[in-house]
Here is the input.
Amino acid sequence: MVKIIRPFEDVNKQTTLVIRTGWLVCLAVIWISASLFGTTHLFPSISQVSEGFSTLWNEGLVVHVGSSLSLCFKAVLIAVVISLVFCYLSPLPLLKPLAGALSKFRYLPFAGISYYLGIVILDARLLQVWVLVVFMSTFFITSILEVIEEIPDEEFDHAKTLGCTRWEVLWEIVINGRFDYVIESIRQNLAIVWMMLITVESILASAGGLGFLIKFSDKSGNQGRVIALQIIILLIGISLDFLLTKTRKIAFRFSKI
Here is the structure.
């Protein structure tokens, strides 16, 4: 028992399972206590959440999940392509300041960016996509630029010694040699897109989506549905994270990330 409270202690899988089960039990006790006792009733009861799952399924939950995933994947794909173009060309002195400037856009507020995008883009669904693209691109560019800057000079010198041209060095070391870092960065920044779904999907209610459902449930005061939707969103996000992690490990078995 002492091991589990000592820093950097290695524990076996069985002990880890017991610890996780213990935390889940604690969470369940807190949830039940908060829903049964006290005057605030901070959380809805488990039965209310279960009813929320049931009603959501009957109202076409799968369609809304598909809408949210479609929006998310479109935004991620466009953001990754645009970001990698700027990042991979950042070693060019002409484009390096531009890539650095784009990364600074992450400090802009959401309301300002969505306002100007709304002026330029009239289609609501397209506006949803590009709001997510802009936000993910700024953070994704920042991550990849840091990866490029941290490449040791010895790798560049070694490639030049072998007779590689500058463009071959760019391909072998920066692009091909660091693609596993790209997948890891996508995994980390995907959380930004998934987290913003609730706000972005309120732009076009007719398209549906998990964000629309949670907004509608909140306005109607159905807290059981709200918690049920939050659990669904969390589980989907964790699943996407798991799939990207597995993809990186399978595709790049010797990666040290």
In short: The two ends are 31 Å apart (CA to CA).
